Amino acid sequence: MHPKPYQVPTCVVWLMRLPMSTALLATKFFAPPRPAHDVARPLLTQRLDAGLSRKVTLVCAAAGFGKSTLVSQWAQDCPVPSAWLSLDGDDRDPHRFLIYVAGSLESVSHTVGVGLAAMLRGSPPASVETVLTLLVNQLAKVPGRLVLVLDDYHLAASAAVNEALAFLIDHMPAQLHVVIASREEPAIALGRLRANGQLTEIRQQDLRFGLEEAAAFFNQDGDVRLTSAQVQALEARTEGWISGLKLAAISLHQHQNPQSFIASFTGSHHFVQDYLMEEVLHQQPEEVQAFLLRTSVLDRLCGPLCDAVLQTQGGEHILHQLDRAGLFIVPLDSERRWYRYHHLFSELLRQRLGHREVVEPLHRRASQWYEAEGLELEAFQQATLAQDITGALRLIEGKGMPLYFRGVTAPVVHWLASQTPATLNRHPFLWVVYSWSLLFAGQPAQLEDKLLAAEAALPGRPQDARTADTQGQIAVLRAWLAVYRNDAKTIHAQASAALALLNPENRPARTAAQCALGVALMFRGERARASVAFAEVIGAGLASGNVMFSAVAGTALAGIQASQYQLQAAAASYREAIQMVGDPSHVLGFEAHLGLANIVYDWNALDEAQTLALLCSALVHQAKSQTEIGADLLQARLLSAQGEDTQALALLARTHGLNTAGPLTDRLREAADLQVLLLLRQGDVYAAALLAQAHQLPLGLARSLLAQGQGLQALEVIQGHRRRVESELRTRDALQAMVLEALVLHAMEHLDQALALLRACVTQAQSQGTIRLFVDEGAPMQTLLSQLRDDKGVAGHVAQLLAAFGTQTTQQPVAPQTAASSHLPLGDFSSRELEILRLIQQGHSNQTIGERLFVSLSTVKWHNQNIFAKLDVQRRTEAVARAIELKLL
């Protein structure tokens, strides 16, 4: 007999990225203040005002044409509240992009954006589509209008961010208007917006200063008076390029003879930039020139950061001096503490700096300052620019929880992809970092080459604890590669080897290894040992903040509990796993939602099951899975429960694999069994028997044999199946076999045996609240159950079962009654929850509890939520009082 293939849990395969854990830069939410000498641009302002009636305004031009200045001035004068977001290259990750979008909107509205950043920072993070959907719903409830300005969008315009923006624009309500300022045209279906009259465009030719605007610009302060001919010459030679005109104005202040300067001011604006850089820099004091050049390595500047990089004092004073001089420096907040250089100005400064000195020490000191301020991602990026591999690696590893375990994968992958194999070979652990980052980025196919390179680079190195831990991490990664390949033997071997090699303090990797080991045990049918392994993973994961693996293990544990017919425990475990995931629409939660849906379906809570089934179907679509049929199977059951057998059969017909020979996975087997049952109900005995025989389905064979009048053969098949699943401790499957065996005995007119067996089934089922297991058998079961209505031992549950026949929906699960809250048993609380309860009683804060137990603050809060829910309280004082009442303390 062929061994039964195991269906790889989707929660195991769909390992999604962890959330970012980085501080937000509030300065990104400030529009540049109005310049001291601005030029009114009424025609462009009117076009921006008119654009409010459309969805999107696009301001698109090359660097230095005044996009940000125009939009910021308009936004400050516009009566509609505007949320400003200055984007940069770090925002190419869609989760980081949406965190800042939510933060920007929340800064101007009390309701829009609230809670979304927390969801995106969850572990794992909420999906982009879910957050955008919630954002759209929040916007739809706003009574007034809002403007969202995305400045320097070209810096963040990755494919994923473009997709997120396109979704927002397609679905946003009339309350929101989006303004995009970009050097490049964004890839967001502008043609459709244009054709539908939903796009206002301001392009480079619109932004160029005309003669009147150029004249107003040069003559507004009275220090430099130019004739119309001189203005026309400068305007023509700069082609209306605003930054070129500004640079020219700065230089003109240093020339006694404007005519001679203008005569030498020739060439395209690219050459003009180089010329004016010389003019501007040479006119500044030596210390200011040095400051400009050396601080150009920074994307954003503040006094303390500049002082740290330059190892001097007075950076804040120089920044204010540059601001007053209008020397291409842009304030980023109203207090003028943070600044940035004009992008083009910064690029030119960096170019000159690279010709004059080595820049790595500057980047290294910037990295050290960012690290001290808790800005780990910025610190890591500066370390990579400093070519500081040791520092970058230390920052990646973090303080016990590496960046890649927190979802910061793209910057790490990008940096490592830029390194030569020789560099990575000199630091073998970088190959391992590369592999982890690829795994969490959803690219497991690329791991094999990286792991081989890591193994090849290790042998010549000293066999110390660090090397052993590195080898252990390689083994963990190989174990997870084997998970993708359904190779239980390799999973077990590699995970076991990993646990023997890994440093005891390497909690994230050990948790990953333990989780893989549990999967291997589950694949091999060793459910008891797998349950122990998964329980250890949950505890270790929550303790270390590795919530993703805790959720995976919790879901797998719930599946084992369900197979052993511990439905109450399984439902609780599924709900806890969903809570760990955080986002109800994240694909990582698919298995937990599906498992819970099947249980509440069995409890005849069809409305709740339908809601969960729709969510599962959406998650399958979101993950672009072509093989996961659990959602379709559940929908088919719901259709059948509502009397729609034809539609249920049509849905099952779409299921892949039912018409192929060979062994089936668990879910395909369940789908085939359901198809046999539905075909028999429709009288198609031949098709049902053919399907049951093709796949050797014990339940289906017994049903089809019974339908053909071969009761004895049917009884032999179902009894053999029952003995087999009982030996494998598959209690739920054994109960299902008993139910069908009772029907076969009844059909063979062995009434006493049938009723005795059915009574045993009902006795076992009533403790778990099972309904649909009986009701789905239809009229024959209704007839048989009616003969047990007066049996005092099972009469109560039989009445519920008989009442359920013919019902299509129930709002609440007919679950078994649990103990009243006033008699809450001690066993309902984990040892960690009781420990936290005692610390709460002693008056310790959440932060102190986390430090005492060596867990994160978020983990403490998560435990608090569980404790409060179990005690049915809202506050810490109420929890203590309730716990004392229940004698928990």
TrEMBL record:
PANTHER family from the UniProt entry: DNA-BINDING TRANSCRIPTIONAL ACTIVATOR DEVR_DOSR
GO molecular function: DNA binding
Secretion signal, residue range per the UniProt entry: 1-25
Species in which this protein is naturally found: Rhodoferax lacus
Record domain HTH luxR-type: where: 822-887
Keywords carried by this UniProt record: DNA-binding, Signal, Transcription, Transcription regulation
GO biological process terms on file: regulation of DNA-templated transcription
Entry coiled-coil feature ranges: none
InterPro entries, per database record: P-loop_NTPase, Sig_transdc_resp-reg_C-effctor, TPR-like_helical_dom_sf, TPR_MalT, Tscrpt_reg_LuxR_C, WH-like_DNA-bd_sf, WHD_MalT
One Pfam family from the record: WHD_MalT
Keyword hit for Glycoprotein: no
Protein name: LuxR family transcriptional regulator
